[in-house]
Amino acid sequence: MVTTLMTLSTIFFSCAKEGDIISKPLPTGDPVVLYTMPEESQPHEGTWLQWPHEYQYGRTYRNRLDATWVAMTQALVSGERVHLIAYDQTERERITELLQASGVPMTNVDFTISPTDDVWVRDNGPIYVKDKNGKLLIEDWGFNGWGNKAAYENCNKIPAKIAGDQGLQHINLNGVMINEGGSVEIDGHGVLMACRSSVLNENRNPGMTQEQAEAIFTKYLGVTKFIWLDGRAGLEITDMHIDGFARFANASTIITMSEDDLDYWQVPQQDVRTLYAAINKNGNAYKFVKLPLTQHEVVTTYGKRVGKGSYINYYISNNAILVPNYNDPNDAVANSIIQGLYPGRKVIGIDCRNLFANGGMVHCVTQQQPR
User: Quick check: pTM over 0.90?
Assistant: First the structure.
C-alpha cells in the first residue's frame, strides 16, 4: 500500500519489477527535465477506459453507468484505438455484447483483463511521457484513493499492468509522490496548473513542500512554470481537482467559468483572482473562455438531483471532443463554445448525468495514450 511519502533522499521501491526504471534521489540544484508529457490534444494512439463493474459498488451502480461507456466508445472508435479495462473475462464478454448490441464497431477496440476498484482511470491510470529521444514510457504515480477515502489497491496496479502488457518501460513513482491525473493540467508549453488542496495535502503527500513538488513535476512531466491555486480540501472526494473548473484549451487559452459560477463551485475568491491573472511561460496573459454551468440542477436518469454540472471536464480525442452533457438547455450553449475552440474536431455530447452523481465527468474517466 502507498499511504505515506518517503523522504526524497532515501527513495525506495518495494514493488519494483524487472523492467522498472527506479527513480534516483532528486537533485538539489536547478530543476532537471528527464521526461515530457505530451499535451492531450496531440495525436493519440488510443484512449483508455476502465469499464464499470458490479464487484465494488453493486450491479445497480454498474448498470446506471454502462450507457455512458458505450457512448464514449462509440464516439472514439472512428479516430483511435479504444483500450478497455475489464474486471474479468465475464465482464469482457458482457461489455462486448453491450457494444455489439449498440452497433459499435469492434475493429479498434481491445481489452485488458485486470481487476479495478472503480472507473477513474484519469487518476489511477498510466501517464504516458516521452524521453529526450522521443521514446514513449509509462509513469506510474502513486494512487491512494484520493487520500484513503476509497478502495484503491486494484486501481493502483493498472499502470504497471499496462506497461508490462505493452512492453514499455515503467517508471515507478509510487514512493515518490501521490498524484492523480485530474489534479494537474498542462498547456504543452511547460506550464502546469494545479490546486494545492489535492497535491500538497497531508492525506496524499505529508510533509512535501511546494518546492519539492515542483522539482518532481519538472523532472517527470517536463514543466517549469507553475500556476498554483489553493483549492479547498474536504468539499468532495478529490479535494478540488483542477479539471472540474479550469483547463488549458490550448497554449494561450484557459477555459473556465464566470466568477459567479466559480463561486457556486466553491472555488476560493483568492484562487479566482490568481486564475484570472495567470500568465504563460513567456509572461503573456492567457485568453479566457468561460463556459456556463448547467442552467438547472442535474437530475439523473433515476431521479436523483445532484446540483449544477460543469462542461469543462471534456476530453480531446483525435477526431472528436467528448463533452459532458446533462439533458439541460446549456448543453447546446457549451457544445457550441467548445466547438469553436476545436474547429477540426467534432463535438459529441456524452450523457453524464449518472456519472456526475458519482463525482466526475468525461475527463475523469478517460486517459490518452500518445501516438
Answer: yes
